[in-house]
Amino acid sequence: MLQEDERIMRIGVLTGGGDCPGLNAVIRAVVRKGVATYGHEFVGFRDGWKGPLEGLSRPLGIADVRGILPRGGTILGSSRTNPFKIENGVERIKDNLAEQGVDALIAIGGEDTLGVATKLYELGVHVVGVPKTIDNDLGATDYTFGFDTAVNIAMEAIDRLHTTAESHHRTLVVEVMGRHAGWIALHAGLAGGANVILLPERQFDVDQVAGYVEKRFQHQYAPIVVVAEGAQPLDGQMVLANQELDSFGHVRLGGIGQWLAEQLEAKTGKEARTVVLGHIQRGGTPTAFDRVLATRLGLQAIDAVNEGDWGKMVAMQSTDIVRVPLAEATRELKTVPLERYAEAEVFFGS
Ligand code: F6P
Fold first, then answer.
1. Fewer CB within 10 Å, N- or C-terminus of the chain?
2. Burial 86-111 (b: 16+ CB within 10 A, else e)
3. Which residues make up the annotated site Important for catalytic activity (predicted)?
4. How many Cβ atoms sit within 10 Å of the Cβ of residue 122?
5. Would you name the residues annotated as active-site residues?
6. Are 138 and 240 a contacting pair, CB within 8 Å?
7. What is the pLDDT of residues 73-95, one digit of tens each?
8. CB neighbour list of residue 189: distance below 8 Å, 6 or more residues apart
9. Does 282 contact ligand 1 (Cβ within 6 A)?
């Protein structure tokens, strides 16, 4: 029911960074509750921080969010724009928000987008953050939405690859995303019954991996090796797809799977092939888990805005949706603890 005693706000919503399944579910929840319960108005900013920076917006009402719950991607568009790397970026954002009569912002993003939100909050912008990323590497939240969908996509791919590996007596190396965190590799590898899982959190010994692979062939099975794009060999280097840095200073990872397959083929004498799952992991419809998580985070975000609880990120802790300071959530990446990795090692080579 509409609470008419509250002040009506005009709220901007943006999605930044890599797209991920569940973004539309957040937007829908925010707008549906914001309009129906609080009577607030919304404006959608296009393409992440580029929207408020350049004043690029679109209407965002109930009609605009109908039917978007199961859709991947984001109806608002996304980009990796960093306003702190653009001359007068912060002033331009503040001016555009004032010009469009926007009282508050809901920023939906990962470490980069929410890092910007943290700094803007410290500079006086009314902002609340919502954590998204398939990488699941944001601090202060147990899960980010998008992760479960990515893991399920990767698991299904691994399930399918088992049969080709067995039929052709090949090693199949599956390279998954996750940047500098191994969550996708760990969960997809465990769920898919991988023979070896390699994460950025621990450098691997390629001879040991070759040993696991050979053992698997001795048991008359073919091995699946899941490697995170950020994994690196002992005394080796991270393999980069591209040397260029984006505006947040990130390199583009990719290529470790191919490198590893060549090494394994040379060391074991068995054919080894690579499958790079890439953006398939970010596409398509979100799982039920991600739809529910994204919806609950969106509902909490609009409550925080309604209460003027600025500088917070909504988060999942245990099964609760809570609010934590943005600064706490963006302080450091949440990587896989080595004891979690050790759980998976029981299955290596067997
Ligand atoms: O952060 C999500 C992510 O998909 C990472 O796993 C990956 O390293 C990166 O984004 C790829 O970004 P882009 O689509 O910009 O190449």
1. N
2. beebbebbbebbeeeebbbbbbbbbb
3. 132
4. 11
5. 135
6. no
7. 999 999 999 999 999 999 999 99
8. 158, 197, 226, 344
9. yes
